[in-house]
Here is the input.
Amino acid sequence: MTDVLLINPSYSNIIYAHAKIKVGVPGNPLLNLAMLASPVIDAGYKAKILDLNLEDDPDTFLAETIKREQPSFAGITFTTPLSKEAVRIAKIIKDIKPDTILVCGGAHSTTFFEEMLETSEFDVVAVGESDYLMKSLLEEKDWSHLKGIAFKKNGEIIKRPKADYIEDLDTLPFPSWKLYNLERYDKPTLSSRFNPPGYLETSRGCPWGCVFCNKNIQGRKFRSKSPSRVVDEIEYMLDAGFKEINIIDDTFSTDIQRAKEICGEIIRRGLKFPWHPINGIRVDRVDKELFRLMKMSGCYKMSFGIESGNQKILDMIKKGIKLKQVRDAVKWAQELDFETFGYFMIGLPGETEETIKDTIKLAKELKLDIAKFNITIPLPGTEMFEEWNSKGFIKTRDWGKYNFYSPYQDLYTHPTLDYDAIDKNYRKAYLSFYFTPAYLLRRFRRSVKEGTLLRDIYLFFKTDWLN
Here is the structure.
C-alpha cells in the first residue's frame, strides 16, 4: 500500500515529436515530484514516484502499479500541452481504483482549476506553490480551511485562497531523490554532458515581466536559498549519485552577489562537478567576475535567453534587456571558453520578416556553440495569450496543441505574419546557423578539445534538420 503516488506523464512523444533538435530534450528526474514527496515521507507516510517516460508501455505499467500499490492519493504534474494526457491518466487510475483521490498541479492547473475539476476525474487542484500540500491532504480531514487548493465537495467546486509564498526557502526539506532509480537516467543529450544530471532550484520568483511567461505559481518576488544551503544541497545530490547539476532557476543571478557567493562556497569546499544554469541566465545580471567564479566552480556552459535580435521586439515583449548587453555577456563567456547556448523565439508579438532576419543574423554574429529557435506559442496564463485572445487571434482551447514543437497554425492567427513566413524563417534559422563551414569547423574544434567528438557526431545525426 502506498499513501501517495506521484506521477510524471510520458511526454517525449507528445511534446517533442516535431522538435528539430530532439537530442536537446531533457531527460532528468523531475525535481518537483521529489520535493512533494519529502514532507510526506518526513511525516511517516509512504510515497512513490512513477516516471512514465522510462517505460516502453506506460499504460500497462501504470495499471499494474495502481493495482499493486493501491494508492490513497495520486498526484500528477503537467504543463499545458500535457493536460489532455494527464486527464487520460487520471481516468485510467479511477477506473482501476475509484476511491483514489486524484490531485493535479502546475501552472496550467492553477490557471484553469475550474475547468480541470469540471471536465476530468481530478478531485483536487493545487493552486500556486504546493510544497506541503500532499502532506496536508493526508493529515487534514476537512480541506475547507486549507490554502492553495480547489476541490470538489457535494458537486460544488470550492476554491480556497492561494497559499502564502514560502519566504525562507532554506526551511524546505531536501528533495527525496532516493525515490528515483538514477541509473535509468543515462542518455546523451545536448542539455548535459554527464549522466545522470540533476535539477537544482536555488531561488524562486522572477521580477521581470516577459509577456510570454506564466508566473502564476511562484510570482514575481525574488526569493532565494542561502549560499550555504545551496551548496549543502549540491553535496546531497552528488552523494545521491548525480554526475552533473542543472540549475533550473528562472533568474539564478538576480542577486549577483549571492550567485558569486554560491560559486565561492563551491570552490571553498573543494567540490569538483560540472554544472550550468539550464534555463538561461539574464544578460543584464552578469559581470566578468561572476563568469570567472562560475568557471572556477565547475560551470562549463552559459545559456542565454536572448529571444530576438531586434531591439524593438525585445522592448515590445518586455524582456528588459539591450542588444549591447547580449553581445557583451556572450563575449565575456566566450573569453572564458564557456560553451555558449542561445535561446531564440520566432513569431513574437510585432514580428516581421525583417525582425526575424535580425534574430538569425544576431545568432550567427554571436558565434554561439548552440542556438535553439522556437516558434512562439502564446501559453495560457501569459500576458501574450490574454492580449491575443481578447483580439480574436486565438483559435482553440484544445490545450494539447499548445506545444512549442507541434504545428501551431491551428492555435492562432499571428497579428503581423502569415504562416508561410513563419515556417520559412524557422527552417532558415536552423539551416543558416548550423550549415556553414565556419560553424562546423568551430564545433569540430570544440568537440576535439573537450573529448566529445563521438558524442556530438551521434547527437548531430539524431537531429531532424530538414523537416
The mean pLDDT is 91. Residues 304 and 357 are 19 Å apart (CA to CA). The chain has 17 helices and 15 strands. The two ends are 47 Å apart (CA to CA).
